[in-house]
Amino acid sequence: MNERRQSLKVNHPFQDRFLLEIVVLIFIIINFLLALVLYLKTADGIGDLTLSLTLTLGLVEFAALGLLYWYLLRSSHRIAGPVYAMQTRLKALRHGDLTVALKFRKNDYFQDTSESFNECVGDMRSRVIGMRHTLDALREATTEGTEPAKLAAQLEQEFHYFRTE
Known about the structure:
Elements lengths: L11 H32 L7 H44 L16 H34 L4 H12 L5
Helix pairs in contact: 1-2, 3-4
């Protein structure tokens, strides 16, 4: 299964909202602190706020916000990537593929979720393999004319593992 993404963002709605919330929060904090510092400087009569200083501070602030946006975008991949991988594996499971495995990158979040998912799929795969063997034995017993009741009971027990109601 090819895991290479084709765009910069993995999950656009999540990452757009995540980035916007953090960048706006940082923007508000920076401007509040900047306004406080400028107010304290002008209140003490230390100096006037010149146009060049204002432009410089604005450029530095937007450069810092751009760097912050890029950093957060890269960091959000450690969340959005595992969610995307989980969604693709769940779709495969829905279509009956019990060979799927979930492996995240080394620094991704949700490593324990990956392990739990793989254990769950492994258990289901083992049970289905057991049911196939029992069904094969049941077919063989039926063609040989022997009593298949014991094998049918074993197969029924395997099916009871799965809750459907």
